Amino acid sequence: MASATASHPPLNSRKLLRRAILNRAFALAYACAILALFYHHVKTLLRPATAANAIAALFLLLADVVLAFMWSTTQSFRLYPTRNEEFPENLEKVVGGTGGFPALDVFICTADPYKEPPMGVVNTALSVMAYEYPVEKLSVYVSDDGGSELTLFAFMEAARFAGHWLPFCRERNLVERSPEAYFASSHRDGTEIDKIKMMYESMKMRVEHVVERGKVGEEYIIGDRERRALNMWTDEFTRQNHPAVIEVLLDNNRDRDITGNVMPNLIYLSREKSQNAPHYFKAGALNALLRVSAIMTNAPIILTLDCDMCSNDPKTPHRALCYLADPLIDQSQLGYVQFPQRYQGINKGDIYCGDFKRLFQINPIGMKNGPSYVGTGCFFRRRSLFGPPSAIVQSEIPELSPEHSPNGLIRSERMLALAQNVAGCKYEHNTNWGHKIRVTCGGLLHGLQASMRGMEVGLLPPGEGSVSWGRTDLPHRRPQPDQEMGHWASRGGLLQVQPGHVRNPVHGPPHGPLLCALRVLVHVVHPHHHLCLPPSDCSYQWTLHLPQGMYLYILSFLTLGVQYSILGFKKQKIKNYKEY
């Protein structure tokens, strides 16, 4: 149903998908197959032929109980699948033109110039700097958690190239605004295209040469300002022990592109690190970005991005604002809007499930309260990080409050000194920032806690014919999905999710979505040991763990197998996940 009034055209709508009835019927049939499977296990346990058979049946029963629990928790996502639609063409009419757009801070996180090449991070930044958004309201922050002069040098080069690239995108109304992606997909010739491509290749060559050498040579430094910034990297400056580095590379109050138009703010940040203070990985980096950006720009809307992502829809913020600026939505209750991750370049079969399609695209459309924060591609309301809607948590200094309006130039000594202070490694100690105001982790747990505070979240599926986000570093190899799940478990918050988060008064009133929390919890008890142990045990004991003969319940095995064959066929034949 579209959200509209007599005075305002609709900005978004939601409708139930036609497959909801089929999903419910399939869930009933599948449940019957699982019950038949349990019947087989129980019968084997009650009348085992040998002790080995009993042990095998017990392990299989335990494994199937856990797997059945995992399946049952996902069925809540299938019973009421909906599709959201946005109408960005109505946005300016509702908010009163582009002047009514809120300011936007973009956070890009990187940590290692060798594992995450600086040119990839540069392409991510350029793709969002070229948004069709009021430039004076757009600020891009790059968090370099590796504290590398190589990354800073790459963004010094990017700041110069942006003066040519941003006008080029505007004049040609490009959709693909990541230079690497644009030049890889464009086969058109022209003097202007060749010129901008030569500039990009020249920048790329310099950056990659510096990364290969491991240091920035004097021949690449232009001006005293760059030299002063790079001189901070001394012999005492290490990855785990260094002061905070904040460099304003572009200032929209001063810097202009080649056509004389304003350029967005571009700020480099490497927070202070010490071996005597925990840094909390990506969560710590995001917290430092929140504080530094509050001092400098304090935009009410925040977009978080991984460094291997690129945006190929220049109107992505418009689509997010169809929710974040909708007058018919209680904005105090809306915490964030999450875009699904879409991967590019995966092989046609995707036999290793490298795109995590079920996690990022299929399950969220059945979550009424919205998906969990997945660490990237998310538009946050800054206010949502300061406690529940009913009571704001005050910070120690007024400049960090979400209501604070920064005044003065972002390059002023006072503002930079204050930003240096809040980027310190011990700033969170004995403050609200270490207890009540924070990003708990780089991903899932933070989104769950936002729901616990009583806030709703929204899902924005990609538009027809284009994807809103696409990873540039792709999972081509088999180990990648397992490595990704391990990363999410250790640093993404999966191992931190406990039953207490569902009804813990410390995290807010009991508004938590129980089924969603249980679905998250199953990742903690993912039964790899149950899946691996029974087959090996049966092989060792020379026993069979599948039913023998033409029993009625053998159909359960066929049903469970046919399901995955059908899903695989659908995934190959149907490209748009919203329709199947």
TrEMBL record:
Its cellular-component GO annotations read:
endomembrane system; membrane
**Compartment(s):** Endomembrane system
* Residue numbers binding Mn(2+): K282, D306
Q: Which UniProt keywords apply?
A: Cell wall biogenesis/degradation, Glycosyltransferase, Membrane, Transferase, Transmembrane, Transmembrane helix
Q: Which GO terms describe its biological process?
A: cell wall organization; cellulose biosynthetic process
Query: What organism does the UniProt record list as the source?
Result: Eucalyptus grandis
User: What does the record say about its membrane topology?
Assistant: Multi-pass membrane protein
- Principal cellular location given in the protein's record: membrane
Query: Which PANTHER family does UniProt cross-reference here?
Result: X-BOX TRANSCRIPTION FACTOR-RELATED
Q: Is Hydrolase found in the keyword set?
A: no
Check the record and name the Pfam families matching this protein.
Cellulose_synt
Q: What is the protein named? A: Glycosyltransferase 2-like domain-containing protein
Which sites bind UDP-alpha-D-glucose? K115, E116, D145
Could you list the residue ranges that cross the membrane? 20-39, 51-71, 550-569
Superkingdom to which the source organism belongs = Eukaryota
List the molecular function annotations (GO) for this entry: cellulose synthase (UDP-forming) activity
